[in-house]
Known about the structure:
By secondary structure, the protein is an alpha+beta fold. Helix content is 61%, strand content 14%. It has helices at residues 46-54, 81-98, 106-110, 125-198, 204-217, 221-238, 245-265, 269-289, and strands spanning 7-14, 18-27, 32-38, 60-70, 77-79, 116-118.
Amino acid sequence: MLLSMTGYGEARRQDETLTVSVEVRAINNRYFKLNLRLSEGYAGLESQIENLIRAQLRRGTVQLNLRVDRFGGTDKYQVNEAVLAGYFQQVAKFQKRYHSAETVPIGDLLALPGVISEKGGAADVGEDWPRIEPVLKEALAALGRMRATEGAAMEADLTSNLDQISTELSAIQLRAPLVVEAYRTRLSERLTKLLSEYDVQVGPSDIIREVGLFAERSDISEEIVRLGSHLDQFRASMKLGESAGRKLDFVTQEMFRETNTIGSKSSDVEISQRVVEIKTAVERIREMVQNVE
Length: 293
């Protein structure tokens, strides 16, 4: 099963005293990187939040926003009269200096920083965590569903590319023995034509030796077997119980290596064309694997 490193999830819950909103985004990264933005007073939850995220994600850059709003009756809040009086004095001083008769609504002053504060000081993080944790899990579950859906789509596309590589590789495997035979025929014809002009005789053993050297230099049977094995490994890795992005990345590199070797050894036009098609498919696979967890 493949999981994409890209996804989004959100959740929100409200009870009689708290409104908890969570938004989490994930993008691809070779390593795990976490960025947290928490409401004021909730920095103490960073370790618990990171543990929840690490339980679901192993790689990728994760941005999580947690907003906690507390509310209640009027008895939960108080007006800081000293701060409010200070604002009034500054406004009066400004009006006197600039001869302004405009009236400033008290509601505007109450909205200024420090005028209204919550009784009891900072939030009790330990008390709020049991109500925050389920919302975090819900948002992470939504993220997980999106990652799984995208992972399934990626698996289908990767499988299509693997099938194309298998088709091209089978054609190369059938073509490879014919290349040596074609070389033997061309060599015999050229030697016969050249030697007849100079009345020189060349024995069959000489031709066989030259053809044998060519066959040894251009033998791609091992590379074909290894590339086929890498295709099988790739397919098996996609079916593992957990996403195997790092392993798939390594296998893809080995597929590139074997394909390049086949291309460099073969001088046959048809094989070279099929190698180009395989390289194109492997490159598509490589780009997609970068987003697999």
